[in-house]
Amino acid sequence: MRALHRIEPELDRDRLRDFLRASDPDDYLLEELDAWVREGRLWVVTEGEAWVAFGRLHDLGRAEGWVSGLRVRAERRGQGLGGQLLLGLLSDARSLGLRELRAVIESTNAASQRLFARSGFRPVLELTLRCGHPSSSRAVSLRPAQAGERPDGALGWLPATDGISDLMPGSDGGRLGRWDPSLLDRWTMEGKLYLGRGLAAAVQADWWPRPRTMWVHPLQGTPEELVPALGALADRLGQEAWQAFLPSSDALRQTYAALGLTPHPFWGDRIHLYEHRVLR
Ligand SMILES: CC(C)(COP(=O)(O)OP(=O)(O)OC[C@H]1O[C@@H](n2cnc3c(N)ncnc32)[C@H](O)[C@@H]1OP(=O)(O)O)[C@@H](O)C(=O)NCCC(=O)NCCS
After folding, report:
1. Burial tier of 136 (Cβ tally within 10 Å: 0-12, 13-18, 19+)
2. Whose CA is nearest to atom 36 of ligand 1?
3. Are residues 151 and 254 in the same domain?
4. Domains: count for the chain
């Protein structure tokens, strides 16, 4: 008998760890599971006592939701379990009053792309996840913004190109949502907005512990100016690396490579943001 259950991370953490390990011993979720389960609503598809599929829905506020961590037991993939789970997450989202759901999917993950497309998600944006490194170059220096201070001039990165913004992460990396200028005030209050001459970025230091990594949302400046400034900031903040979702095109990927940014070791080079609007 197959059923969908919401699980309690506090009670089911060990079982979840075993489930993930059995599906994929190298699953990145295992690294930071404790932090990962703290946010969001966790669902499993069960068959009798056995768990066969798992996924998470995260209410981001502003009627926006984030879907992540979908996993089906390796030997049970391609049998519709992922579809059943995603339908369950959509129904949970409706019950919470969420109006827009998003998820990121690598271009090489055909099964996941088909699954989300079948459930009404559409690709809206191509991104690439890139890693940068600290450097002690003489770049323009970035400093924390003061209350009420705004970047000088228009923003040029993700929010400007499509109205989508990295909302800055919880434990599992950037989540993307609708751009809203009040995010700048929130980041300033949280000490995450950094400004320099013609440059701006939101930064969360110590987003990941090993290696010490800061999460970055570029906002203003050319890659040629902003990337070295971020390397210098990482160096000053004692970070061993930084990481960001960046806009993706063939030309931009060449620029990122020339500036020493590297693709993420686990994720593919082209990542698509999928969106499901106005849930009925
Ligand atoms: C992605 C995943 C959750 C999908 O679950 P699933 O139970 O296999 O999904 P379903 O059977 O409901 O359907 C998947 C769709 O992909 C297709 N598919 C399955 N395996 C495929 C493969 N190797 N290549 C291409 N398409 C594939 C299925 O035919 C189906 O397409 P259809 O709707 O046109 O019939 C599952 O494969 C999985 O756990 N993968 C590993 C973890 C992962 O990648 N998670 C997603 C992160 S975004």
Report:
1. exposed
2. 72
3. yes
4. 2
Residue 52 forms part of a structural domain: yes
CA of 84 to the centre of ligand 1 (A): 11
Q: Give the strand pairing for 213-220 and 241-247.
A: parallel
In a domain, 86, yes or no: yes
Residue to mutate (ligand 1; options 28, 47, 70; most atoms within 8 A of CB): 70
Alpha-carbon distance of 279 to 40, in angstroms, equals: 19
Give CA–CA dist 176/247, Å, rounded.
12
Whether 139 is covered by a domain: the verdict is: yes
CATH of the domain at 33: 3.40.630.30
- Note the pTM of the prediction, 2 decimals: 0.93
Across the strands, what pairs with 54?
A: 44, 71
Q: Which atom of ligand 1 is nearest to the CA of 118?
A: 33
**Which ligand 1 atom is the nearest neighbour of the CA of 110?**
25
Q: How far is the CA of 9 from the centre of ligand 1 (A)?
A: 25
Residue 184 lies in a domain: yes
Residue 205, pLDDT > 80, answer yes
Ligand 1: residues with CB < 6 A are 70-72, 77-83, 105, 109-112, 114-115, 118
Residues in the chain: 280
Asked if residue 68 and residue 138 are part of one domain, the reply reads no
Q: Write down the pLDDT at residue 189.
A: 95
Query: In terms of domains, do 139 and 261 share one?
Result: yes
Q: Which domain holds residue 31?
A: 2-98
| Rounded mean pLDDT, 102-128 | 96
β-bridge partners, 194:
144, 201
For the stretch 224-267, pLDDT in tens is: 999 999 999 999 999 999 999 999 999 999 999 999 999 988 88
DSSP structural state of residue 126: E
- What pLDDT does residue 133 have? 96
Same-domain status, 244 and 154: yes
For residue 263, the CA-to-ligand 1 centroid distance in Å is 24
For atom 7 of ligand 1, which residue has the closest CA?
A: 82
**Residue 57 CA, ligand 1 centroid: distance in Å:** 18
pLDDT tens sequence across 59-68: 999 999 999 9
